[in-house]
Amino acid sequence: MSLKINELCVNCDVCEPACPNQAISQGESIYVIDPARCTECVGHYDEPQCVVVCPVECIDKDPQFVESEPQLLEKLRRLQQE
């Protein structure tokens, strides 16, 4: 499942460099997570690093992009081949 940043985001800039897949970027008003690149850090870390570093707890699971761990690992494999 991809993650998403909600409206509580204060644009503190700590999540973007923490993402190993470069899935986070500055959006129009808050940071956004690209669901095509987000693997919830599966294959890299035990927990999503953006969630770990976020000081305002504004990162949630995105119910529009439900994926199992094997699917996330496959996505990571594809990303690493790019």
Automatic annotation (TrEMBL):
Keyword Iron-sulfur: yes
Domain 4Fe-4S ferredoxin-type: 1-29, 31-64
KW Chaperone (keyword) present: no
Pfam families per UniProt: Fer4_7
Keyword set, alphabetical order: 4Fe-4S, Iron, Iron-sulfur, Metal-binding
NCBIfam families given in the database record: di_4Fe-4S_YfhL
Cited PANTHER family: PHOTOSYSTEM I IRON-SULFUR CENTER, PHOTOSYSTEM I IRON-SULFUR CENTER-RELATED
Protein name: YfhL family 4Fe-4S dicluster ferredoxin
Highest classification ranks of the organism: Bacteria, Pseudomonadati, Pseudomonadota, Gammaproteobacteria, Lysobacterales
